[in-house]
Design brief:
The chain is of the alpha/beta class and about 375 residues long. About 40% of the residues lie in helices and about 15% in strands. It folds into 2 domains: about 5-20 and about 265-380, Aspartate Aminotransferase, domain 1; about 30-260, Aspartate Aminotransferase, domain 2, CATH 3.40.640.10. Helix 3 (about 30-40) runs antiparallel to helix 10 and helix 5 (about 75-85) crosses helix 6 (about 100-110).
């Protein structure tokens, strides 16, 4: 479809929100109300039937043997690192263009973050850069784990990442906070590495009404350690085997998420349908569209374009009352909080360039096709 047709169809008077969570809630309100009433009537709100049922259902969904509910996606990463044996002072490698919470989790585990650059098409960690980093690391600063971030819903290239990691004897943690429902080689992401970590923050593809998270794994020992770590280190009531934390998925969130999990594949399919429409309408636009590189199935948590004129386009879209956002405007290694790590501008050129150019457009299952046309029309009219 040409730009002329795109510009003729949308109603230019109607604002397009970047995200409207009320639309989803209204579509399943009856189911949610019933689930909440069930929990409130039970009188049991922490680590009970709803949480256990959701853990089993989510493990089955991901193709994992175990799932352990925790307090947030950041806590999922933090506790997964500890459960996988990361010790204070260890080095954990990840990509620098991730959300800061990825690195917060590394620091919470008393480990040291290290970074490698990304594939510019997928925005995910580049396996060849990871291998080069691990091959050249000094003897006293050897990594014990890598966090592969499935950014925006596009899985990292897990096969070579796992190969490189195994050859160096390090653990692989999947940061799947933005990738619920994504696939790699026909398998759901999450249990491909040693542990997969999900966030159920409200804006995610599968979102609660506050902070919540999950770790999936095919390693029974990792799952057992996670269950202790999330609940004060208890092996049984008042029997504290390890030093632990308070990071538990509550029954209200679990009940809501059980309702939403039944809709997740339908919602991901709708995201992919809208992403395909964006792809078609933006074919002749002066922006770079997101990639979907085989063997992945993108879950499109975000639809992220690239343009060297990002700031001008952001201003124009705001004037047009079209919601847009930037995920993320600054790589972690250049954030003031992490200056102590010693990195400088230019150390990771692809990640730094991405942070200057990425722009997220509205994309959620309840977004309408006329609204997509409206967004694209506004991009086309950007001077």
């Amino acid at each position: 479809m040409g730009t002329e047709q795109v510009m003729a169809s949308p109603d230019l008077r109607v604002p397009v929100p970047f995200l409207d969570l009320r639309r989803q809630h209204h579509s399943i309100k009856g189911e949610i109300d019933h689930a909440l009433e069930r929990v409130l009537e039970s009188g049991r709100y922490i680590l009970d039937r709803e949480g256990g049922a959701f853990e089993r259902e989510f493990a089955d969904y991901c193709g994992a043997t175990d799932a352990v509910g925790v307090g947030s996606g950041t806590e999922a990463l933090h506790l997964a690192l500890r459960a996988c044996g990361v010790q204070p002072g260890d080095v954990v490698v990840t990509a620098p263009n991730t959300a800061v919470p990825t690195v917060c989790a590394i620091v919470a585990a008393n480990a040291t973050p290290a970074f490698v650059d990304i594939d510019p098409l997928t925005f995910t960690i580049a396996p060849d850069k990871l291998e080069a980093h691990l091959d050249s690391q000094p003897a006293g600063r050897r990594a014990t784990a890598v966090i592969a971030v499935h950014l925006y819903g596009h899985p990292a290239d897990m096969r070579p990442i796992l190969g490189v990691a195994r050859s160096h004897g390090i653990k692989v943690i999947e940061d799947a906070a933005q990738a619920h429902g994504a696939e790699y080689s026909g398998c759901k992401i999450g249990p491909l590495g040693d542990a997969g970590c999900f966030s159920f923050y409200p804006t995610k593809n599968l979102g609660a009404c506050g902070d919540a998270g999950m770790v999936v794994t095919n390693d029974g020992d990792v799952a057992r350690r996670l269950r202790m770590l999330r609940n004060y280190g208890e092996q049984a009531k008042y029997q504290n085997r390890v030093e632990g934390f308070n990071s538990r998925l509550d029954e209200i969130h679990a009940a809501m998420l059980r309702v939403k999990l039944a809709h997740l594949d339908e919602w991901v399919a709708r995201r992919r349908q809208l992403a395909a429409l964006y792809d078609e309408l933006l074919a002749d636009a002066s922006v770079e569209r997101p990639a979907e590189r085989a063997p992945v199935r993108h879950s499109y948590h975000l639809y992220v374009i690239r343009t060297p004129r990002r700031e001008a386009m952001l201003r124009h879209l705001a004037e047009e009352q079209v919601g847009a956002s930037v995920h993320y405007p600054s790589p972690v290694h250049l954030q003031p909080a992490y200056r102590r790590l010693g990195y400088r501008a230019g150390d990771f050129p692809e990640a730094e360039r991405a942070c200057r150019e990425v722009l997220s457009l509205p994309l959620y299952p309840e977004l309408t096709e006329p609204e997509v046309h409206r967004v694209v029309s506004s991009i086309a009219s950007c001077p």
